[in-house]
Design a protein that fits this description.
2 helices; alpha+beta
Amino acid sequence: MFYGDHPPPHFHAVYQGEEIKVNINTLEVIEGRMRLRAQALVIEWATLHRAELQQAWDLASRNQEPSKIQPLE
């Protein structure tokens, strides 16, 4: 996430030079491309951490540091 980023609430995921932007509310990819397997793992992680992602978005949109979110294990 980037401080003061524009709506809709979203996060950026980067893997091996590929990047996607994912809507937190719908978990839809709203921009970019990524290998399907990597994208599926990102969506799985986001599903598990949606409430934390929303909280992080709320903080970042107010230019406050979001808390860390555990990686997918």
